């Protein structure tokens, strides 16, 4: 780096640091045109200074790299509370003012820029959705490198620079994310360039990697498959030169790796470059405050000078700190960045804040989804055919891979469970991705594979999130109980999409589609640890504008739901369905109609006269409604309806199946919610309803709030009763079995049917017989195990 260029880069860095400090502290006098006074200071000081100088340092040098090489670069800020630094840099490059014209590139715009930070109606303190160029919500640590890796997949021209704080490096997801070199194929993927920023401290204590010596840290990254370079120091000139050289070297290595792979194929796993950057925490800030060291300690983490409004000494120190960046040299009289400095930023879409890769909807190409007719099961009679419900979906995904081979914009992510979840047909079209030598006995493993299997829910979901936010499509399939491992990621992604709705400049992206299979009801072979429907509860509490939850009862309904979800934009779609062999109920046209309605009466399963849709009063109301949500609860409900029909045929029973869980909510709570009229058309105005439900009963009751007499709904669901047992014993343990549902229906029916007592006794006897049978034979009773719908 030439001396003249170095001086300009250092001044640009000073401008970013100045705006960072100004955002944290100032509500007026943004360019220090007059002496600093207490009334210029915000009444509440929020924000994080300690990591910000390092974030800006990397940003400024990436700008230089982009201008020299023409590279497309996305910046992922792991230390998310360095929000003011990223906002400052996106403002300096001009993107911020283009998107938010009110924050103009002049003194008035600067005034608004500093006032909006961490104030009501302004912007949050971390790198978040309103920050142009961001694909990563920094409010929860651990996911930066995961998101960066997903962003690089299938974007061969992209470099994803990922700054990782040494506090973040202590989290489990980040530790797992170092495995990226084993999954990035240099012939088709872009590159991830990790910058591990070691400034030594978290919010109030030291970091593990910050206290390890350089050789150990470099060896750690090398053991994970990276080729790290160290940049360390506290003297700006030396650090600028070293970082510029390190980035130039990293870019040359990235292009060399990609060129060799393009010419010769992937002969061996490449060692991608990485940078370890060790600089003081709170660099260029106050060295000490009130006689206590600050720079280079944990005390620089947030607001180094806390008493600025009330302490004249602190106010004077803040003014000295701000003036140390020489703002009068950086900005002209109108408040614009000096032309010589502004010229250091890239232009147009090459600016990291303006990159279309960081606004993935701009790049999104719709999936070419095959027609469902080729995969649908023939269902001439409901409840007779038994098939593995997810297997047809696997065949659809196989052909989706084939249809997207040229566009390369779809991937399946799964924690080593693709075959287990009956989605293995995809391996007829592609393999598992692993950048490692093949061994005899491997099946469907190659560097060119596009099924991403790794035994980490964090990696699978995080990769998919990065993949989606940079303009592609995908599906995350996992065991239901273990989806809770990454539940907080789903929460953060939902929050991201909720805020996107207020930002028209962010183009819609493909939805986050999560398939939960190997469900609680059919993990009898694995036991209690594998039995847990908790992610439904988690997602129910989040924004109705974003969250969708589907529980298809059979394979054809699953195909329809999956097709809808893969075409959707800006949602989190939760699809809950078991992988095991289940009875099939609906042909494809019926499945389409059922999914579109969200919930339907199944007249073939009940014993009431058909209700005319236009005249709900054309028949007597049912004595009891049996409602079911989920595949196993559906089977138990139908079995209960068949028992009632056989023993008390004069009891009027209605069967309602729900596939779209959110259709039960009020319309003002969720856009899929039914009107009161439609709700009562299904469940009557005040009749008794017995519900067999896949999840926890409390979650279902939450949906009924605001409906007429919600206490008339008697919900049976998973009640944390489980073990290694038989399939039917799982529903017995949780009192959702057909016999429990019959007993509940008899209790709740509007009139006591003749023969009801005898039927109740029969149900209790069958439960006792079941208890004895499974302990003697280790399998369910034949009449339960082999049950099918007995009526034509």
UniProtKB/TrEMBL annotation:
Q: Where is the Xylulose 5-phosphate/Fructose 6-phosphate phosphoketolase C-terminal domain?
A: 579-789
Q: Does the keyword Membrane apply?
A: no
For this UniProt record, the keywords arranged alphabetically read as follows:
Lyase, Thiamine pyrophosphate
**Ranges for the Xylulose 5-phosphate/Fructose 6-phosphate phosphoketolase N-terminal domain?**
2-362
* Pfam families referenced in this protein's UniProt entry, alphabetically: XFP (PF03894), XFP_C (PF09363), XFP_N (PF09364)
List this protein's GO terms for biological process: carbohydrate metabolic process
Q: Which cofactor does it need?
A: thiamine diphosphate
Q: Which GO terms describe its molecular function?
A: aldehyde-lyase activity; magnesium ion binding
Family affiliation:
Belongs to the XFP family.
Q: What is this protein called?
A: Xylulose-5-phosphate/fructose-6-phosphate phosphoketolase
- Which species expresses this protein natively? Goodfellowiella coeruleoviolacea
